[in-house]
Amino acid sequence: MPTCTYQLTNLRAGGYVNVRTAPALNARPVAMLKTSDGRFTGTCTSSRGWVAVRSPTGSSGWISGHYLQKVSSPPRTAVPRRPSLACTYQLANVRRSSYLNVRTAPWVGARRVGSLRVSDGRLAGGCAPTHGWVAVKSSNGRSGWAFGHYLRKTTRSPLASATPAASRPWGCMYQLTRVRPTGTVTVYSSRSSSSQPVGTLSLTNGRFGGGCTATQSWIPVTSSNGRPGWAPAYYLQKVGG
Questions:
Q1: What is the pLDDT of residues 146-189, one digit of tens each?
Q2: Residue 131 and residue 107 in contact, taking contact as beta carbons nearer than 8 Å
Q3: Are 92 and 123 in contact (CB under 8 A)?
Q4: Beta-ladder partners of 5
Q5: Which helix H or strand E contains 105, and what residues bound it?
Q6: Whole-prediction pTM
Protein backbone atom coordinates (compact mmCIF):
# COMPACT_ATOMS: atom_id res chain seq x y z
CA MET A 1 0.00 0.00 0.00
CA PRO A 2 1.42 3.47 -0.90
CA THR A 3 2.53 5.60 2.03
CA CYS A 4 2.68 9.37 2.40
CA THR A 5 4.46 11.70 4.80
CA TYR A 6 2.52 13.85 7.30
CA GLN A 7 3.06 16.46 9.96
CA LEU A 8 0.63 17.67 12.62
CA THR A 9 -1.52 20.75 12.17
CA ASN A 10 -4.41 22.53 13.97
CA LEU A 11 -2.76 22.00 17.37
CA ARG A 12 -2.35 24.59 20.11
CA ALA A 13 1.13 25.26 21.45
CA GLY A 14 2.05 22.40 23.75
CA GLY A 15 -0.85 20.28 22.53
CA TYR A 16 -0.80 16.71 21.32
CA VAL A 17 -2.93 14.23 19.39
CA ASN A 18 -3.59 10.60 20.29
CA VAL A 19 -2.73 7.66 18.05
CA ARG A 20 -5.58 5.17 18.55
CA THR A 21 -6.08 1.46 17.92
CA ALA A 22 -9.05 2.08 15.62
CA PRO A 23 -10.56 4.98 13.63
CA ALA A 24 -12.84 6.13 16.45
CA LEU A 25 -12.62 8.63 19.32
CA ASN A 26 -13.46 5.94 21.88
CA ALA A 27 -10.68 3.63 20.69
CA ARG A 28 -7.77 3.05 23.05
CA PRO A 29 -4.76 5.40 22.66
CA VAL A 30 -1.47 3.63 21.94
CA ALA A 31 0.75 6.69 21.57
CA MET A 32 0.62 10.46 21.36
CA LEU A 33 2.28 12.85 18.94
CA LYS A 34 3.39 16.44 19.34
CA THR A 35 4.36 18.95 16.67
CA SER A 36 7.96 18.59 17.83
CA ASP A 37 7.95 14.91 16.80
CA GLY A 38 8.31 16.07 13.20
CA ARG A 39 7.24 14.06 10.18
CA PHE A 40 5.88 10.52 10.12
CA THR A 41 4.33 8.16 7.59
CA GLY A 42 0.78 7.02 6.98
CA THR A 43 -1.59 5.77 4.31
CA CYS A 44 -2.25 8.23 1.49
CA THR A 45 -6.03 7.90 1.81
CA SER A 46 -8.32 8.25 4.82
CA SER A 47 -11.02 5.96 6.18
CA ARG A 48 -14.06 7.82 7.54
CA GLY A 49 -11.85 10.82 8.15
CA TRP A 50 -9.07 8.86 9.88
CA VAL A 51 -5.60 7.97 8.59
CA ALA A 52 -3.59 4.90 9.53
CA VAL A 53 -0.13 6.09 10.62
CA ARG A 54 3.12 4.88 12.14
CA SER A 55 4.61 7.19 14.75
CA PRO A 56 8.35 8.04 14.85
CA THR A 57 8.69 5.58 17.77
CA GLY A 58 7.22 2.75 15.69
CA SER A 59 3.68 2.63 17.14
CA SER A 60 0.93 1.97 14.57
CA GLY A 61 -2.60 3.32 14.85
CA TRP A 62 -5.08 5.92 13.64
CA ILE A 63 -5.19 9.74 13.79
CA SER A 64 -8.06 11.99 12.83
CA GLY A 65 -7.32 13.61 9.49
CA HIS A 66 -8.26 16.98 11.00
CA TYR A 67 -4.84 17.07 12.67
CA LEU A 68 -2.81 15.91 9.68
CA GLN A 69 -1.17 17.83 6.88
CA LYS A 70 0.21 15.80 4.00
CA VAL A 71 3.77 16.82 3.20
CA SER A 72 4.85 14.49 0.42
CA SER A 73 5.41 10.89 -0.44
CA PRO A 74 8.44 9.60 1.47
CA PRO A 75 11.69 9.82 -0.47
CA ARG A 76 12.75 6.60 -2.17
CA THR A 77 16.09 7.40 -3.76
CA ALA A 78 17.77 10.06 -1.63
CA VAL A 79 18.99 7.63 1.01
CA PRO A 80 21.82 9.22 3.02
CA ARG A 81 25.20 7.63 2.62
CA ARG A 82 25.88 5.24 5.49
CA PRO A 83 28.75 6.40 7.69
CA SER A 84 31.52 4.18 8.95
CA LEU A 85 30.28 1.93 11.76
CA ALA A 86 33.02 3.08 14.11
CA CYS A 87 31.04 3.24 17.38
CA THR A 88 29.33 0.59 19.47
CA TYR A 89 25.84 0.56 20.92
CA GLN A 90 23.48 -1.55 22.94
CA LEU A 91 19.69 -1.49 22.89
CA ALA A 92 17.82 0.78 25.28
CA ASN A 93 14.10 1.08 26.01
CA VAL A 94 13.49 -2.36 24.44
CA ARG A 95 12.11 -5.33 26.39
CA ARG A 96 14.15 -8.55 26.30
CA SER A 97 11.26 -10.32 24.57
CA SER A 98 10.92 -7.62 21.91
CA TYR A 99 13.16 -6.34 19.10
CA LEU A 100 14.16 -3.24 17.14
CA ASN A 101 13.63 -3.09 13.37
CA VAL A 102 16.53 -2.27 11.05
CA ARG A 103 15.41 -0.54 7.83
CA THR A 104 16.91 0.29 4.44
CA ALA A 105 16.65 4.05 5.05
CA PRO A 106 16.29 6.43 8.02
CA TRP A 107 12.49 6.67 8.10
CA VAL A 108 9.73 4.42 9.44
CA GLY A 109 8.22 3.67 6.03
CA ALA A 110 11.43 2.13 4.70
CA ARG A 111 11.65 -1.62 4.06
CA ARG A 112 12.73 -3.81 6.98
CA VAL A 113 15.98 -5.69 6.38
CA GLY A 114 16.64 -7.15 9.82
CA SER A 115 16.27 -6.67 13.54
CA LEU A 116 18.21 -6.29 16.77
CA ARG A 117 17.53 -7.86 20.16
CA VAL A 118 18.83 -7.21 23.65
CA SER A 119 20.47 -10.65 23.53
CA ASP A 120 22.65 -9.51 20.60
CA GLY A 121 24.77 -7.56 23.09
CA ARG A 122 26.92 -4.77 21.69
CA LEU A 123 26.52 -3.83 18.02
CA ALA A 124 28.33 -1.68 15.49
CA GLY A 125 26.86 1.69 14.46
CA GLY A 126 27.64 5.11 13.08
CA CYS A 127 28.91 7.65 15.57
CA ALA A 128 26.39 10.40 14.66
CA PRO A 129 22.64 10.07 13.99
CA THR A 130 20.94 11.13 10.75
CA HIS A 131 17.48 12.65 11.34
CA GLY A 132 17.37 10.72 14.62
CA TRP A 133 18.39 7.41 13.03
CA VAL A 134 21.67 5.50 13.42
CA ALA A 135 23.37 3.39 10.76
CA VAL A 136 23.82 -0.12 12.20
CA LYS A 137 24.46 -3.73 11.28
CA SER A 138 21.55 -6.03 12.15
CA SER A 139 21.91 -9.43 13.81
CA ASN A 140 21.65 -11.13 10.39
CA GLY A 141 24.69 -9.17 9.16
CA ARG A 142 22.78 -6.78 6.88
CA SER A 143 23.41 -3.05 7.18
CA GLY A 144 20.62 -0.51 7.60
CA TRP A 145 19.18 2.12 9.93
CA ALA A 146 17.64 1.90 13.41
CA PHE A 147 15.78 4.58 15.35
CA GLY A 148 18.24 6.23 17.76
CA HIS A 149 15.72 6.44 20.61
CA TYR A 150 16.28 2.73 21.17
CA LEU A 151 20.09 2.80 21.06
CA ARG A 152 22.64 3.81 23.70
CA LYS A 153 26.24 4.47 22.69
CA THR A 154 28.69 2.51 24.81
CA THR A 155 32.13 3.36 23.39
CA ARG A 156 33.90 4.82 20.39
CA SER A 157 36.10 1.74 20.04
CA PRO A 158 35.17 -0.54 17.11
CA LEU A 159 33.82 -3.98 17.87
CA ALA A 160 36.22 -6.86 18.07
CA SER A 161 34.24 -8.59 15.32
CA ALA A 162 36.27 -7.03 12.52
CA THR A 163 37.90 -10.42 11.84
CA PRO A 164 35.65 -12.34 9.43
CA ALA A 165 34.00 -15.45 10.83
CA ALA A 166 35.62 -17.55 8.10
CA SER A 167 39.08 -16.83 9.53
CA ARG A 168 38.27 -18.22 12.98
CA PRO A 169 40.29 -21.37 13.71
CA TRP A 170 37.22 -23.55 14.27
CA GLY A 171 37.63 -27.18 13.24
CA CYS A 172 33.99 -28.24 12.92
CA MET A 173 30.72 -27.08 11.39
CA TYR A 174 27.32 -26.98 13.10
CA GLN A 175 23.68 -26.19 12.53
CA LEU A 176 20.97 -25.47 15.06
CA THR A 177 18.62 -28.13 16.37
CA ARG A 178 15.70 -28.09 18.85
CA VAL A 179 14.98 -24.48 17.86
CA ARG A 180 11.68 -23.12 16.55
CA PRO A 181 11.78 -21.63 13.01
CA THR A 182 11.60 -18.09 14.41
CA GLY A 183 13.68 -18.78 17.52
CA THR A 184 17.25 -17.80 18.31
CA VAL A 185 20.09 -19.15 20.43
CA THR A 186 22.07 -16.60 22.43
CA VAL A 187 25.87 -16.66 22.17
CA TYR A 188 27.58 -15.64 25.44
CA SER A 189 31.03 -14.28 26.23
CA SER A 190 31.75 -17.24 28.54
CA ARG A 191 30.33 -20.65 29.48
CA SER A 192 27.42 -19.25 31.48
CA SER A 193 23.98 -17.91 30.59
CA SER A 194 24.55 -15.18 33.17
CA SER A 195 27.54 -13.79 31.27
CA GLN A 196 27.44 -10.98 28.67
CA PRO A 197 25.52 -11.84 25.44
CA VAL A 198 27.69 -11.16 22.39
CA GLY A 199 25.34 -12.27 19.61
CA THR A 200 22.77 -14.80 18.45
CA LEU A 201 22.30 -17.68 16.03
CA SER A 202 19.14 -18.56 14.12
CA LEU A 203 18.09 -21.19 11.59
CA THR A 204 18.55 -18.61 8.80
CA ASN A 205 22.29 -18.64 9.51
CA GLY A 206 22.53 -22.18 8.11
CA ARG A 207 25.87 -23.76 8.96
CA PHE A 208 28.45 -22.01 11.13
CA GLY A 209 31.87 -22.71 12.61
CA GLY A 210 32.60 -24.00 16.09
CA GLY A 211 35.03 -25.95 18.21
CA CYS A 212 34.97 -29.73 17.83
CA THR A 213 34.59 -30.55 21.52
CA ALA A 214 32.25 -29.28 24.22
CA THR A 215 33.46 -27.88 27.54
CA GLN A 216 30.96 -28.28 30.36
CA SER A 217 28.19 -28.65 27.74
CA TRP A 218 29.20 -25.42 25.95
CA ILE A 219 30.77 -25.11 22.49
CA PRO A 220 32.82 -22.14 21.20
CA VAL A 221 31.15 -20.71 18.08
CA THR A 222 30.96 -17.62 15.90
CA SER A 223 27.66 -15.72 16.20
CA SER A 224 25.78 -14.26 13.25
CA ASN A 225 27.35 -10.82 13.86
CA GLY A 226 30.85 -12.33 13.55
CA ARG A 227 31.73 -12.24 17.25
CA PRO A 228 33.10 -15.39 18.92
CA GLY A 229 31.54 -16.78 22.07
CA TRP A 230 29.92 -19.84 23.63
CA ALA A 231 26.58 -21.54 22.88
CA PRO A 232 24.86 -24.45 24.71
CA ALA A 233 25.73 -27.77 23.06
CA TYR A 234 22.09 -28.80 23.52
CA TYR A 235 21.09 -26.62 20.55
CA LEU A 236 23.97 -27.55 18.23
CA GLN A 237 24.21 -30.43 15.79
CA LYS A 238 27.60 -31.21 14.27
CA VAL A 239 27.47 -31.51 10.47
CA GLY A 240 31.14 -31.54 9.53
CA GLY A 241 34.68 -31.55 10.87
A1: 988 889 888 644 444 333 333 345 788 899 999 888 888 998 98
A2: yes
A3: no
A4: 41, 72
A5: none
A6: 0.42
